[in-house]
Amino acid sequence: MQGTARTPSPSETAYTPTDRTVPTRSPDRASYDRDLVHAILDEAYVCHLGFVRDGAPVVLPTLYARVGETLYVHGSTGSRPLRAAGQADPGLPVCLTVTHVDGLVLARSAFHHSINYRSVVVHGVARDVTDPEEKRRALDALVDHVVQGRSADSRPANKKELAATAVLRLDLDEVSAKLRTGGVNDEPEDLALPHWAGVVPVRKTYGTPVPDPDLSADTALPDYLQGR
Amino acid sequence: MQGTARTPSPSETAYTPTDRTVPTRSPDRASYDRDLVHAILDEAYVCHLGFVRDGAPVVLPTLYARVGETLYVHGSTGSRPLRAAGQADPGLPVCLTVTHVDGLVLARSAFHHSINYRSVVVHGVARDVTDPEEKRRALDALVDHVVQGRSADSRPANKKELAATAVLRLDLDEVSAKLRTGGVNDEPEDLALPHWAGVVPVRKTYGTPVPDPDLSADTALPDYLQGR
Predict the structure, then answer these.
(1) N or C: which end of chain A has fewer CB within 10 A?
(2) Where in this protein does the record put region Disordered (chains A, B) (predicted)?
């Protein structure tokens, strides 16, 4: 599979559940729908990447991008997980998790307090990308995943920068989404209690872009940042 | 340490770095300052909890709360990590990570694109909370960590709900913060390139609270939600 991102046949509308992607709790909140998983992944750009070092878990935040059925993460060639993946055969077992918080659910009972969220959990083996063309495409995707259109409006990485950057690929095979939506689920006998109940929406917002002090005054804010 | 949250002596203003809390990359972005770590932890309420199952990493989003030098997470007594922690002696090795995204850093070069962020990584052993008083305090803290003052304005958990809920504690001993702040770090020879460069601020915002349809019309929005 090295060299190109995996493309599923159009008939595959869902990921196949496995023992570790079927949750023990609230299985009704789990989904394997490919479009839903893609939408959750495409709306974020920071994931939490877990791996095992000396038998103990490590979880680090890092940028990622999706290209078809492949996720890419990158980092310095000197970073521990990237080095480990490059040295391991066939790669580094990882769990990559992405979470959006959509709301605070305040129930009348403390027990039924909850969070509206959408998350994706990907299990698999991360492999070092060695093909130069795939690596370059992955790096473009990492920039564009944060700001669509940006990679074409920046100086591409030179040889030295490419050599200093390691890219890992993780195919979307063992994948699940989990989400909670909707309102409060109080017990019927609690409905008359005097406590306020409802949902407080939460979302990510962008402030006014702050230009670099060295930017020449005639460099306009690009279209892809308008409305951020 | 069971029964009470750990309280450090006032002289301990920083956590002691260990082999796994000193990053291999960008060590200048790491901090062990206790107040900074607390501030990062107190501003979020969803963490990513990593543990090892059958030799492979698992990373799940979950709520947490801080009480002094102790973090608490909770879940159903039927959930896999909670069950594993209850059965393991002395507990479940975990890595708990909290991340805030503060800005998108757009450099003139693709290579220097970055994210402004603040994160905390906690390594340790999560232990099942068995003391009923500590468990109740932890559950109150979990509600109040999301909305300060809310636990006093909701029906407390009853015996059945308490029995269905497992709480894990994780002491803040092996802890580090890592953060990037500030502007663009382009190479001097790139400064004249025609690409826009700067920082797009990112933050979490709250929408207007949506009352539960069953809420009686005379239940006012509580003070602790005003301004959310």
Answers:
(1) N
(2) 1-29, 207-228
CB B184 within 8 A of CB B105: yes
Task: Find the CB nearest A200 among B96, B155, B209.
Answer: B209
CATH superfamily of B20-184: Electron Transport, Fmn-binding Protein; Chain A (2.30.110.10)
Q: Among A48, A155, A203, whose Cβ lies nearest the Cβ of B207?
A: A203
Q: Distance (Å) from the C-alpha of residue B17 to the closest C-alpha of chain A?
A: 16
Give Cα separations from A204 to A101, A102, B98, B102, B205 (angstroms): 9, 9, 16, 10, 6
Q: Is A14 on the interface with B (CB under 8 A)?
A: no
In this prediction, residue A11 has a pLDDT band, given cuts at 50, 70 and 90, of low
**Residue boundaries of the structural domains of chain A:** 19-186
∠A172-A173-A178 over CA atoms, to 5°?
75
Of B155, B205, B221, the CB nearest to A203: B205
CA nearest to B62, candidates A89, A115, A186, A18 = A115
Which CATH number does the domain A19-186 belong to among 2.40.70.10, 2.60.120.580, 2.30.110.10, 3.10.20.30?
Answer: 2.30.110.10
| Burial of B219 per CB tally in 10 Å (0-12, 13-18, 19+) | middle
With 90 as the cut, is the pLDDT of residue A70 above it? yes
The phi and psi torsions of A38 (rounded to 5 degrees) equal -60, -45
Q: For B88-130, how does the pLDDT look when each residue is reduced to its tens digit (9 = 90+)?
A: 778 999 999 999 999 999 999 999 999 999 999 999 999 999 9
- The CA distance from B195 to the nearest CA of chain A, in Å, is 6
What is the count of residue pairs from A and B with beta carbons less than 8 Å apart? 287
SS3 (DSSP) at A6: coil
Query: Which residue of chain B is at minimal alpha-carbon distance from A160?
Result: B111
